[in-house]
Amino acid sequence: MINCFSRRKWESGLRYLKKATEKGHVEAVYTYGIILICLDGELRKQGLRVLSSLHLPKPNQGNSRMIASCRSKTEKFLRCMWVHVALTGPKGICCNCDCDIEEKPNHSTPSECQAWDASNDVSHCCDYCFWDREANLFCSLLRKYLIN
């Protein structure tokens, strides 16, 4: 992540994340997959395949512990970095589903990243919409630590 967002060395950063993903590092799988989703096209599809390797139960069946852990570790890592590069969230894919995503903020004041800490309670959500939501939350977090 340092190479991608702090040193602006995308190729080597993605190569290192891919290597860590191949070795089964859960947070690397999460981060690498989310980044690929944000890059659109064939990389988006690759990102969804990478994230599917996490073998999470359906969102409404309690994957919040693993996701919360990945979020927490990602935020701790970003907090210690000089973030110079942010990502644009993914362009939503039309999946023709009936997703009902309602974020439950846990803060009393609105902020761009309040959903990052929110519960993953989603009454009905397909994988595409779930990971798009995660990618948008990740991008919001990057912007939070972005150095202008």
TrEMBL record:
It holds the Pfam family TPR_27. InterPro entries: At1g67623-like, At2g35280_TPR_dom. This is At2g35280-like TPR domain-containing protein. Residues 1-79 form the At2g35280-like TPR domain.
